[in-house]
Amino acid sequence: KMTDNKTLSNLSSVFDSATRIQIMASLTVSPLTYAQLKKICQVTDGKLFRHIDKLIEEGFIEFEKERNDDIKYKRHTIYQLTETGRDTFQQFMKLLMESMI
């Protein structure tokens, strides 16, 4: 869980990208596949992978591979927020809103 002494500037290195914010915001609604995130973010595979890797490295999102029954032998990756990711993103949004007032 995040400590209360975090500031917007402490979080800016992780949330300095509109794409990362978009990924986090989208995953607050529900877990999503890579294809769904790509469609939402409208970025190249390379950029999306880099942003996802950064969020995984920070412990904010996690993934699991599931079999897709529609396509034989095909697996897809489902991404979701970790508890830390959810708490941190909520804190970031709160600080962002406070900074706008």
Order of helices and strands: HHEHHEEH
Q: Label the overall shape.
A: elongated
Query: What is the residue-mean pLDDT, rounded to a whole number?
Result: 86
How much of the sequence is in beta strands? 15-25%
Gyration radius, in Å: 15 Å
Distance between the termini: 26 Å
* Helical segment count: 5
| Largest sheet composition | 3 strands, antiparallel
Low-confidence stretches: 1-5
Estimate the helix proportion, in percent: 40-55%
- Helix and strand content put the structural class at alpha+beta
Q: Give a count of the beta strands, DSSP E runs of length 2 or more.
A: 3
What strand order characterises the main sheet? 1-3-2
Please tell me about this protein's structure.
This protein has a 3-stranded antiparallel β-sheet with strand order 1-3-2. It contains 5 helices and 3 strands, in the order ααβααββα. With 101 residues, it is of the alpha+beta class. It is elongated and about 50 Å long. It has helices spanning 8-11, 18-29, 34-41, 45-57, 83-100; strands at residues 32-33, 61-68, 74-81.
